[in-house]
Amino acid sequence: MESLSLLMGGLAGALTPMNLLWVVVGALLGTAVGVLPGLGSSMAVALLLPVTFSLDPTGAFIMFAGVYFGGLFGDSTMGILMNTPGGSTAIATSFEGYRMAQAGRAPQALATAAIGAFIGGIIATTLVVFFAPSLADLAIMFGPAEYFALAVFAFLATSSVVSDSIVKGLAALAIGLSLAVVGIDGISGAQRFTLDVPSLFDGISIIIITVGILALGEVLHVAARHGRRSSHTGPPRSTGRPYLSRHEFREALPAWLRGTAFGVPFGIIPVGGAEVPTFLAYGTERRLDARRRSPQFGKGAIRGVAGPEAASNATSGTAMGALLAMGLPTSATAAIMLAAFQQYGLQPGPLLFDRNPDLVWTLLASLFVGLVVLLVLNLPFAPMWAKLLLIPRPYLYAGITVFCALGVYATAASITDLFLVLGIGFVGFLLRRYQFPLAPVLIGVVLGPLAETSLRNALLSSGGNPSVLVGSPTTWVMYGLFVIVIGYNVLQRVRARARLDT
Fold first, then answer.
1. SS3 471
2. What are the transmembrane regions (predicted)?
3. CA 382 to chain centre
């Protein structure tokens, strides 16, 4: 009850006219920056960091709350409409969201994302309010061996279900892992696949790979089919309905809740952000969909948008709790916000709740307010965003190409990056041409460094004894789930082949 009374006091502070204005401004600015390909929510916070230094700490962090969640929604908006996610946390949402947009259901996809973001964020923030002091207990359960088991589970479980061919799924995963190991090895200092190009010493940015595989690959794929259908019209006209029907809501609700369940614990586990839970949520929804009489994945499945989007925002909500309660930044955006706290002479952690209770509880209350503001702002504007798809196809995809180039160049001002994104875009085109799944490529890129670092740290800490990889109950659970998932998929494929033979 004490937490509830403190939250009510924080809510009174967050709802003052000036603080409410900062929430709205932050939500609008975060969304505006988030929709730009290659920038994303973390870049939105970084770009707007200097703007807040003229504000008092409470106003600054309330504005950050709006920017934080607004940037996440912007990431998903471009992923859904143009298959160009603003950040890596929206990659999983883009797969089915873009197919919904291509089928004329862009407003419904955006509404699903907005409601999912609201549900995931609200549940996660509520848990943070009541259980912030206990967050550390879950984080300490994960060491290098557990991270490696988690990565292996995500690699093989997802690769085995996103394609009709397990071989193609594993081949796509191998491409992603190959891209992930480019650069200088952090432990030995050896160059790997850099071709002695200095620009490759730091590896290939996830932004370059995401933009190349998803956006530029799609542009080349559309251009290659130029003569097969009219190129002067965009995708089918959307219905313009910025809300979900009762049937669509019932369809999406279980996925929202499952995605939230994936996202909540990952906000306090330092694996780099929401990529892991979003892909796990996507893979789970795809596996469940395969059991239905009429599978929808590949045609624009609403659950394929609902699950990852709820997971992403649930992760962000508990990441904020981990930052405040433990001083632990579990994502790039949280790390930037930690720097902002330190700029004001504040140190997040258990003592922050005692020394600056007004700031902490007003900030937590502003997260609730920011989520409501984003829902109110974005649901009515979904049809407006969807009208981008009415632009004639040649101009639309030319614009996407220009924004891809600008977004990639803006991150490091490197001409080499432009050649890289072009080459990776051609790889994305070939993957589409020969029907290889894209998700395993991106999973390999995102989780490859985590898997490699965790494996090597685990073996170093054990003196090279591989039994450390299965030495805890958490790893047993991970590998047990992996065996069950793989076994179930193999059984399903055998049954399907038997039915075809008969």
1. coil
2. 110-132, 138-158, 170-191, 203-224, 322-341, 361-382, 394-412, 418-434, 441-461, 473-491
3. 20
Please give the structure tokens belonging to residue 294: 């009429």
Tell me if the pTM is above 0.70: no
Write down the number of H helices and E strands in the chain: 21, 2
Please name the residue that has the structure tokens 């390909």: 37
Q: Which residue has the tokens 């307010």?
A: 369
Burial 176-206 (b: 16+ CB within 10 A, else e): bbebbebbeeeeeeeeeebeeeeebeebbbb
Of 61, 64, 75, 59, residue with least CA distance to 117: 75
Q: What does the pLDDT average to over 44-49?
A: 64
Q: Which residues of 88-115 are buried (b: 16+ CB within 10 A; e: fewer)?
A: bbbbbbbbbbbbbbbebbbbbbbbbbbb
Torsion over CA: 353, 359, 365, 369 (sign): negative
Phi, psi torsion values for 418, nearest 5 degrees:
-65, -40
Q: What is the pLDDT of residues 359-417, one digit of tens each?
A: 778 888 888 888 888 888 777 776 676 666 667 777 777 877 887 787 778 767 788 88
168 Cβ contact list (under 8 Å, min separation 6): 435, 436, 437
Q: Which two tokens stand for residue 360?
A: 């902490």
Could you give the percent of the chain with pLDDT greater than 90? 3
> Residue 123 burial (CB < 10 Å; 0-12/13-18/19+)?
buried
Complete DSSP assignment for 435-499: T--SHHHHHHHHHHHHHHHHHHHHHHHTTS-GGGGG-SHHHHHHHHHHHHHHHHHHHHHHHHHHH
- Give the Cα separation of 143 and 124 in Å (integer): 23
**Residue 232 pLDDT exceeds 50:** no
pLDDT digits (tens, 9 = 90+) for 146-195: 878 877 877 776 666 556 677 888 888 889 888 888 888 877 778 888 88
pLDDT at 451: 83
3-state secondary structure of 491: helix
Q: DSSP string of 137-174? A: HHHTT--HHHHHHHHHHHHHHHHTTSSS-HHHHHHHHH
- Say what the alpha-carbon torsion angle 182, 184, 189, 191 is, to the nearest 10 degrees: 60
